[in-house]
Amino acid sequence: MKERRIARALSRLAQSGASLRALGDGSVYGVFAKRDRRSRPLVRLSAAEVRELEAQGAIEARDGEYGLSAAGAARAAREAAPPQEAFLAQHQSIVARDVIGGDGRVHKVRGIDPDVAMRKLAALRGVGNEPWLSAIELSAAGRLRADWAVGEIGLVRGTDWGAPIGSTPRSASNTQEIAMARRCDARRRVGDALAKLASPLRRVVERVCLYEEGLEALERAEGWPARSGKLALKLGLAQLAAAL
Question: Which of 18, 80, 87, 204 is most buried, by the most CB atoms less than 10 A from its CB?
Fold first, then answer.
């Protein structure tokens, strides 16, 4: 019962704007959506359970309340995923996708969502709720991510989808060489593009666009004021777009 309640609390805290706050004398805490204390708490935890979660690093204090830490977000994703997807889910979003198999038929598979990072970037908004990043800046981020993905894991674990079906062992070897060459080329393009950025902007682009670190976590790590990370990201992507 306790484990299920804590899992529910972490899952609710993973939602945007949710917070954990003390109720009454502080012996009980409640999870609220979007920091709205006027509504009923979504989940209640005892003070001892909150202290336990804080000691485990799953939550962290923020301005008189608690929020989910990076470790807590990974734990929430892991516990919400099916057992066979738990490890991947704590690092990346898992989605159902249609792929074409070797038999030419469309199959439903589950795997890492390749577009989640770009959707998060596109969702950033300015003061007037206008898109924070321009189409050119988003395009630069997309090109960098595409090359980075190929350089990190190859073309679907080294598979060349352009190779003819039923190729011979000799052509399979050639396919691996082609995939490796593409991987090396992609890594070189990423390195060349990042080398053209000023050092602080390079760190922002790498950590947000490639490693999908949140802007708030980036600001804390860099010791920057609140909301300065978003401005640095825009400057970095503008510089990247000019360099590509």
Answer: 204
